Amino acid sequence: MIYSMTCYAQKFDSLALTPPMGWNTFNTFAGNFDEKIIRKMADILVSSGMKDAGYQYIIIDDNWTNTRDSLGFLTVDKGRFPSGLKVLSDYIHSKGLKLGLYSDAGYKTCGGFVASRGHEFQDALMFAGWGCDYLKYDWCNCEGIQAVGAYTTMRDALYAAKRPMVFSMCEWGNNKPWEWAASIAHLWRTTGDIIACWDCVDTHGGAYNSWGVMKILDMQDSLRIYAGPGHWNDPDMLEVGNGNLTITESRAHFSLWAMLAAPLISGNDLRTMSNGVLNILTNKEVIAVDQDSLGIQGFKQNNADSLEIWYKPLKNGDWALCFFNRGSKPVDFHYEWKDHIIVDHVAKLELRFDNQTYFLRDIWMKKDIGTTGKPFISKIPSHDVVMLRLKK
Ligand code: GLA
Predict the structure, then answer these.
(1) How far is the centre of ligand 1, averaged over its atoms, from the C-alpha of 138 (Å)?
(2) What is the pLDDT of residue 302?
(3) Per-residue model confidence (pLDDT) at position 303
């Protein structure tokens, strides 16, 4: 007798219909954190107003797994997580937040800790039991295995564990995940790691590259066709407030990530963030551009004279517009609306100003500043932006 088994494994639908927002341990703490720090970050996410602005996932990145027990189940380091993950997870949920965990498709994570290869279904059950809502799944130590298969296996394992989890692929764009991962994951990294500098590269002695904010930005534009609700390009976490980025550069970085409809995963030390950094991370009008329900990734329309002009179509016929001075000197500019017809070939939308006047809202100044009836004249400091919302 032949038995047939139909397998309905899929990714969880209706999750991440807008780009995920949260906070992740890695950019500030690397592997150096414990449950106290995580609780503190959850507390501040709420008390600072970040939760109200939309940040909901607290993601515990690499360096939390310990050994496996005699039945192969993952354990945590009791020294750093004395209450255990379930208690920590309950605490995070009691704050109205969600828990993210990290693992890797190899036997070991990038930091050399126990990972999920060969234990995918067992680990997914464990993550579900701990109340995990989001899994970041890395790609270290995966020589000789195939990305589509490895990520599909974990997708199926999560589905079988029956707890909806956002699935965040982190294979650095090595296998062009944008071409095949929409049915597997909710987001996929498009590049190697971001680092907290404006335009630098760290070659790690020739081993691999980590990239400054501008380097990552320049790798995104051709990928916009692949992004949309439930399946996002991920240009990596935010470095807002980190390293040697100035406040202006942090603002530009945040604005551009919003124009890209990127996941907004902050990674700064919330305990010491300045008001300036908090104001950037919680600007609800910028966040609304990122979280717009159409989910269209914005595009660079021109970049003459180091002034880049980015557009992003929004719901109800609105558009976001970001003038970005990438150069080292301030730029004075005069934008004559009627000279421009903006065509979004991917979303098949056109924006013209000869037959329609738009109201202008400066979303960093939080001010209405007139209409497209008159030329827009402004001065933008080096590495800064003017970001507008155009409304009919
Ligand atoms: C890789 C990932 C990072 C981070 C580290 C943790 O480098 O790309 O985002 O998760 O591993 O070790």
Answers:
(1) 7
(2) 85
(3) 67
Ligand 1 surroundings by CB, under 6 angstroms:
26, 61-62, 109-111, 138, 170, 193
Q: What is the DSSP string of 285-328?
A: HHHHHHT-TT----EEEE-GGGEEEEEEE-GGG-EEEEEEE-SS
Average pLDDT over residues 301-315: 90
pLDDT tens-digit map of 71-85:
999 999 999 999 999
pLDDT of residue 4: 46
The angle formed by the CA atoms of residues 361, 364 and 369, to the nearest 5 degrees, is 30
pLDDT in tens, 130-141: 999 999 999 999
Residue 364: helix, strand or coil by DSSP? coil
Q: Does residue 334 come out as left (phi exceeding 0), alpha (psi in the -120 to 50 range) or beta? A: beta
Angle at 175 between CA 211 and CA 240, to 5 degrees: 30
Known catalytic residues? 138, 193
CB 137 within 8 A of CB 88: no
Torsion of CA 194, 197, 198, 203, to 10 degrees: -60
What the block records as the tokens of 69 is 């027990």
Q: Is the pLDDT of residue 26 over 80?
A: yes
307 CA → ligand 1 middle, Å: 32
